[in-house]
Amino acid sequence: MLLQEKLENHAFTASERHVVDYLLEQQRGIENKTTTEIAAATFSSKSTLVRIAKKMNYSGWTALKKAFISELDYLDKSISSVDANYPFTKRDSIMSIASKVAHLETESIEDTLSLITHDELRKVVDIISNAEKIHIFAASSNLLVVQEFSLQMSRIQKEVQIHSLQGEIFFNAYLAKPGSCALMVTYSGETGSLNRVAEILSKKEIPMIAITSVGENSTTRKADAILRLCTREKLYSKIANFSTDAAINYLLNIIYSCVFALDYDRNVALRISASRSIEDERFSDSDILKE
Fold it and tell me: Count of CB atoms within 10 A of residue 1's CB?
């Protein structure tokens, strides 16, 4: 959930709500204001500002303000020419639909790229590359998206297990062995069953990577490394998960590619030799396709 949404929906006291409303109304206007100035403008106190920050799980007002401004920066730059929830209408032609879906997926990937930092990606790659086994936990359609990642990783001899059986995922998390890691794929970061899995993994001290939306959520609070998704879709009111699926698939492709590159020559040779041995019945007359 975005910080703005959390601020709008949290049950604050009357005095705290007055400060929060001021924050939401002023937006970037608070960037250069001190706590003293904000307290004076809202007829409150510095301690009230600190309480608000603590309720939002931040160390203090400065940390909350920094996160609030960073979120505004993301929202301002991620304005799309295509509505992620309803990218086409009933009046669009089939070629118009084709164009709009293509634009949406392209923009979603570029938006996701803008959210990646070198240090966080390095942490993810280190966790994955050092793990003897990768456990993937996801729900609903995300379970379909992660299957291609599992296949690609297996082709370079990285063991991946996707956990999908409801109820059993808690046992799977508990039985995860030291030396393994977990990859949590959750758009909202607030899926009840996955939050319970994250709690179990945290207690077991299994390194955990979260692929999730912009903003703080229950999953990010447990994760050791976080990759953020383009965040444009509603949870329910939409035609499909076009934007989110494109973003998740892109991040998984990045992880695979970065791990592949760690032992590039060996992995290239392995993929070619395995394909030639196993897929020897494949043939094409096309000059582009044939070897």
Answer: 18
Q: Which helix (H) or strand (E) holds 145?
A: helix 142-154
**Backbone phi, psi, residue 135, to 5°:** -95, 130
Cα–Cα distance between 17 and 277 in angstroms, integer? Answer: 67
What is the reported pLDDT for 217? 85
Over 70: is that where the pLDDT of 78 sits?
Answer: no
Topology of domain 110-275, CATH: Rossmann fold (3.40.50)
Query: Is pLDDT of 290 > 70?
Result: no
Residue 115 parent element (H or E): helix 94-115
Residues 165-191 have pLDDT tens digits of: 988 999 999 999 999 999 999 999 989
Distance CA 255, CA 152 (A): 11
Domain 3-77 has CATH 1.10.3720.10: no
Domain with CATH 1.10.10.10 in the chain: 3-77
Beta-carbon contacts of 264 under 8 Å, excluding residues fewer than 6 positions away, are: none
184: Cα separation from own chain's centroid: 9
Q: Integer distance in angstroms from the first to the last C-alpha of the chain? A: 49
For residue 269, is it left (φ>0), alpha (ψ between -120 and 50) or beta? alpha
- List b or e across 138-164, with b for residues whose CB sees 16 or more CB atoms inside 10 angstroms: bbeebeebbeebbebbeebebebebbb
